[in-house]
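Lecture 7 notes: from sequence to structure.
We start with the chain below.
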Amino acid sequence: MKSSKAQSKATSNPAPTTALELNPKPGNEDWPSRIAVSAYYKAESRGFSPGYELEDWLGAEAEEK
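Predicted structure tokens for the same chain:
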């Protein structure tokens, strides 16, 4: 059984689970939405050709930085 100190340490700093927690800068509450919209327009400009979804998303993220 773990000591209470070990238990509190394990639960005091959980890993980020959402995009907002991964990108916690002030003013970035709508960050995932902005990325999604940008990725959509990238896909639209290609005629929605399949197989480039990740490339569109990562390109949109890079433009936001």
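Points to note: The radius of gyration is 18 Å. DSSP finds four helices and no strands in the chain.
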